[in-house]
Amino acid sequence: MEREINIAKKADEFLQIFKKGEEFTQELLKENEKLRFRLAQLEDAIERSGDEAKIKLYEDRIKTTVDELNSLKERYRQVEEENKDFAVKYIEVEEENNNLANLYVASYQLHSTLDFNEVLRIVLEIVINLIGAEKFAVLLIEEKTNELVPVATEGMSIANVPKVKFGEGIIGTVAKEGESYFSEHIHNRSNGSEEEPIVGIPLKIKEHVIGVIAIYSLLAQKEKFSNIDYELFNLLAGHAATAIFSSRLYTQSERKLTTIQSFLDLLKEKPRR
Amino acid sequence: MPNILVVEDSPTMRQLISFAMKRIANSKVVEATDGVDALKKLSSEKIDLILADINMPVMDGLKLVSLVRGNSAYKSIPIIIITTEGAEEDKKKAIAIGANAYLPKPIQTQELIKLVNSIIGS
Q1: Which of A92, A96, A221 to mutate against chain B (most B CBs within 10 Å)?
Q2: ipTM beyond 0.95?
Q3: Which of A150, A159, A167 is nearest to A209 (CA)?
Q4: Which among A137, A240, A253, B20 counts the fewest CB atoms within 10 Å?
């Protein structure tokens, strides 16, 4: 009986121990659960704090990139402005280049010969092709009569261009004053009157006028005078005058030389007879 | 290297046009004083473009255009007419007989260079 009681007591003690063990295990499991939860919280916090740092980093980078972009846009705008300036300057230089080429060719041709008629032909060529005149005349001063006499014409008969007294009318005034004349309305006279030119250019050697280029009408497609036309008029005023004057002197001296030579030949031949 | 034939009786215009054409990269300029001279140059040189005046002695520019267009060896060569004849009917006539472009004088050099570049380029 006592043995049975002891067994029951021991079983009860064992049960108590088992229950305590169970309670302890339960507590351990709860603690474990708490720790797992805390661990998850910490991991989440660490992850979140990493994202924020990355976001901050990315935001900084975006800001830097936006600043760089704005700076590049500004530079691009400046370069574009510079390009526009260069393009305008390039066009101006090209135009200047072409104008200089025109002036060079005109000047070169005017001084390429000492033949009077050839020089007159070149003057006509320049006025037709480079200026775009349709009807015009070259008049030279006849010292003996003090008149301007037509020596070459284009688009009109030389007989239709009257001689002009020095100082009279537009042509005579241009010759007297040595100043170019430009009519305000270069296209309003379709009949191309031979009495009133629309342009008068004095042919001058320094201040000495030797003649006038009188333009009566322009080609239909020539709407207005440009800067290069005025440059060409200036060139003609000086270079054409020099070329005409020197070629006329040369032609006259050549003619005299031929006459003298013929006379000398005649003298040399006489004794033989 | 484009070979450009400049047909012009006026030495001033011939020199001026040649001057402008030499500014086109790698171009070579051949000069002729009239239509007959141009035909001689065409038979002796390989020409890629012709710039011709209309009013010339011996043979005018329009006759030259029709002869070039009638010759199987030269008919594909582009031709630009440069002339003082600025009327629309003159232009129509030149285009009708085979000119590719028509430029009335006085010419703007930049305009001519642009036109030549567009024709050679195409």
Answers
A1: A221
A2: no
A3: A167
A4: A253
